[in-house]
């Protein structure tokens, strides 16, 4: 499992790019490569949980221009080893 944490700023480009990004997330979820994703309640960033290897995650991040949009920063990418839940 791979975890991506995003940090947001109020740049208007982020909101303009969000619909296309969410469409890609839906496709990744339907394919079983994205477990969960969503913004923090205060909209300061988001958390995404991917069921992919690091190399595939790099491709996913590279293929979605949202991650390079002003107002969106990738704050952290971490490998996660859950001990309970559907991914355990």
Task: Describe this entry's structure for a reader.
The chain has a single domain (2-79), classed as Dimeric alpha+beta barrel (Alpha-Beta Plaits). The model has no long low-confidence stretch (mean pLDDT 94). The chain starts with a strand and ends in a 9-residue tail after the last strand. By secondary structure, the protein is of the alpha+beta class. A four-stranded antiparallel sheet has the order 2-3-1-4, covered by helices on one side. It is built from two helices and four strands; from the N terminus they run βαββαβ. It is 33% helix and 31% strand.
Write the layout of secondary structure elements.
Blueprint: E1 2-8, H1 12-30, E2 34-39, E3 45-50, H2 54-63, E4 72-79
Antiparallel strand pairs: 1-3, 1-4, 2-3
Q: If classified by CATH, what would the architecture be?
A: 2-Layer Sandwich
Which CATH class applies here? Alpha Beta
CATH fold assignment: Alpha-Beta Plaits
Query: Separation of termini?
Result: 10 Å
Strand arrangement within the widest β-sheet reads 2-3-1-4
Question: DSSP helix count?
Answer: 2
Averaged pLDDT: 94
User: CATH H-level name... which superfamily?
Assistant: Dimeric alpha+beta barrel
Query: Tally of extended strands?
Result: 4
What's the short story on this structure?
This protein has 88 residues and is of the alpha+beta class. The protein has two helices and four strands.
Keywords:
33% helix, alpha+beta, globular, four-stranded antiparallel beta sheet, Alpha-Beta Plaits, 88 residues
């Amino acid at each position: 499992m791979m975890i991506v944490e995003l940090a947001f700023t109020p740049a208007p480009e982020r909101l303009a790019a969000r619909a296309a990004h969410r469409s890609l997330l839906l496709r990744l979820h339907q394919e079983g490569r994205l477990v969960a994703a969503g913004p923090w309640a205060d909209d300061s960033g988001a958390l995404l949980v991917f069921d992919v290897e690091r190399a595939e995650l790099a491709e996913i991040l590279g293929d979605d221009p949202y991650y390079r949009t002003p107002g969106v920063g990738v704050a952290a990418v971490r490998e996660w080893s859950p001990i309970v839940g559907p991914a355990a």
